[in-house]
Amino acid sequence: MLADVLRNPVFLRTKPDLAVGEDQLGRRIRWVHSTDVFEAASLLRGDELLLTTGIGLAGADAQRRRRYVRGLAEIGLGALALELGWVFAELPPDMVDEAAERGLPLIALRQLVPFVEITESVNSAIVDSSIVGLRFADALSQALSDALAHGATAEVLLARLGELVRAPAMLIGPDGAPLCWTGDGTGGADAPPSSAELLDGGGCGATVSVDGVPFATLVVGKPGAQSRDVVRDALDRACPAFALQLLSDRAGLATRLHASRQLLHRLAAADASPGALRALAGAVGLPVEGSDYLVALVDGGQPRGPALLREVAARLGARHAVTALDEQAVLLVAVPTGSVSAPPLDDRVADLLAGLLPRTEQPRAAVGPVATDLAGAAASLRQARAALRAGGVVPGTGPVAVASRLTAERMLLDRPTAELDQLVAEHLGGLVALPPPRREELLATLESYLDTARSKAATARRLRLHRQTLYQRLRRIEQVLGRDLDDPRIATGLALAVRAWRIRSNVPVTRDP
Fold first, then answer.
1. In what order do the strands lie in the sheet with 400-402?
2. CA neighbours within 13 Å on the CB side: how many for 240?
C-alpha cells in the first residue's frame, strides 16, 4: 500500500511530501519503477510507484506536463514521485491540479536519494509481503479444499473462511440476497450482516464464477488475520471451493442464471409484458413491487465488468441481476422505494463505479435513470446506453457517463443528422467556419461560459485564463455570431448547438491547459 511505501526507512530519507492523495493511503503499490521518459505511461501496467527526476519534462509547458500526468493516471499508476532539485524547485501547480483532478497520488521528494536504493528497499518489502500473501492464500485454499472433500456445505465453508481471516463473512447469491453468512467468524449469527457495512468497514470481496459465469459474491469484513490486501488476493483462491459447492445444485443454479439472462434480454428488447417481467424477476429473486430500479453497464473493454458490477451491488447491499449483453456487462439493481435519499441512487452507483475503474477522459461505464417499476427499467437500460454514446463526445465526462447529467446530448443523439446540421448552421455558422485551432479555442470558451451560467470569473478559472484574454475571446465570439451571449434565450440555443456540433463532428472541444 502507499502508506507502507511512505513509512519505508529508505523512502523516508527523501523527506517525502504527499501533495495529492491523503485520502488514498490504502492504494495498492505492486512495484517501483524509475524513468525520466516522457512516454512512461506506455511502459507501465498500473499500480506502480514511478520515480522521476523530471528531466523528461524539462522545457515542457503546462499543457504538456498535464498530458504527462493524465496519461499516467489513465493507465492506473499507483503514485508519481518527483525528485526536486534537478528541474523543478517545487511541484508545478499545473501538475498538482491535474493529479488532484485525476485522483493520482503525487509526492515531492525533497532530499536526493539514489533511486536504486529506493527501488531495492521498497521492491524487497513488496516481494516479502507477496510471499506472506501467497503462503496465506495457499493455506486458505488448502483448508477449504479439505473441508469440501469431507462434504462441507456452503455454510461450513464460510464458517471455516471466517475463522481463517478472523472476520465475518457472507456469500451473496446472483440476486444480491445472502445465501449464507457468519457473524464473528465462528458462525452462529441469527441475522445476515450488511454487505455494504462489511465492505465500507474495511472488508473486501471476490466474484465466484460457476462454469465461467459470474454467479455469486464472497464478502468478508475487516480482516484480523492479515492485511486487507493479502486477504483480498487470497479470496480469489477461495472462490473455486465455493463454486464447486454451488455446482451441487446444478438444476437450481441453471434456472437462476437462465432467468437472469432472460430478464435483461427482455428489458433490452423492450418487448415483454409486465407479467412476464415480474415472473422472470421472481425467478431471479428480485422484488417485483415496492422498489426502485436502475440499470448500469460496463463496456466490453473492461474484462472484469461483471465482477465490478457485482461489487457495486454488494456495496449498495442491493438485490440485483448481472449478465453479458451485446458485449457489455449489464447490472439491474433493485432497492426498496424511499430507502435512498441523498445522494440519489444513480449518483451513488456512478460514484462506486468511478472508484473501481481507471480514471479516463472517455467513459467506460454508464448509469441509467432511476425507474419506479420493472417496465421502466427497460428505459433505464436504453438511456444508459445512450449516455455511454453521449459521454464519448463530451469532454471531461470521466470513466462513468450518467444519463441524468447528459440529458441534452441524449436527446440530440436521437434526432436526424439533418436537424443537427440545421441547428449548428443556425446558431454557430460563422464560428464553425473558422480555421480549426481558432474555432476550437472559441468553442471551448463559449461552452465553458454557458456551462458556468455565463459567469466570467468561473469561466476564467475553468479555462485558466487571464480576465482580459477571456473578455477578448467573448467579444470575438459575439462579433462572429452577431449575438448577445448574455441573452438567456440565445444562450439556450447556443448551448444545444455546441453539443450538436460536437456530436456531428465527433471531436471533443479542446480545452485550455
1. 319-325, 328-336, 291-299, 365-367, 400-402
2. 11
- What mean pLDDT value characterizes the chain? 89
**Residues with Cβ within 8 Å of residue 117, at least 6 apart in sequence:** 10
Residue 217 near residue 246 (C-beta atoms within 8 A): no
pLDDT (tens digit per residue) in 235-251 = 999 999 999 988 876 66
pLDDT, tens digit (0-9, with 9 covering 90-100), for 440-497:
899 989 989 998 889 999 999 888 889 899 999 999 999 999 999 989 889 999 999 9
Question: How are the residues of the chain apportioned to helix, strand and coil, as percentages rounded to the nearest 5?
Answer: 55, 15, 30
> Residue 65 and residue 57: Cα distance in Å, rounded?
7
Helix (H, G, I), strand (E, B) or coil at 212: coil
Distance between CA atoms of 242 and 215, rounded to whole angstroms? 11
Please give the Cα distance from 479 to 136 (Å, whole number). 70
Q: Are the C-beta atoms of 18 and 6 separated by less than 8 Å?
A: yes
Q: Report helix angle 436-451 to 488-505, nearest 10.
A: 130
Which DSSP state fits 211? T
Which is it for strands 48-52 and 31-34: parallel, antiparallel or unpaired?
A: parallel
Instruction: Kindly tell me the burial class for residue 440, based on how many C-beta atoms sit within 10 Å of its own C-beta (0-12, 13-18, 19 or more).
Output: middle
Q: What is the mean pLDDT of residues 389-412?
A: 87
Cα–Cα distance for residue pair 155/40, rounded to 1 Å: 48
Strand order from edge to edge, sheet including 16-20: 16-20, 106-109, 79-83, 48-52, 31-34
Phi, then psi, of 375 in degrees rounded to 5: -60, -35
Q: What is the pLDDT of residues 51-95, one digit of tens each?
A: 999 999 999 999 999 999 999 998 899 999 999 999 999 999 999
Rounded CA-CA distance 34/55 in Å is 12
CA distance 183 to 198: 11
Angle (deg, nearest 10), helices 374-391 and 274-284:
90
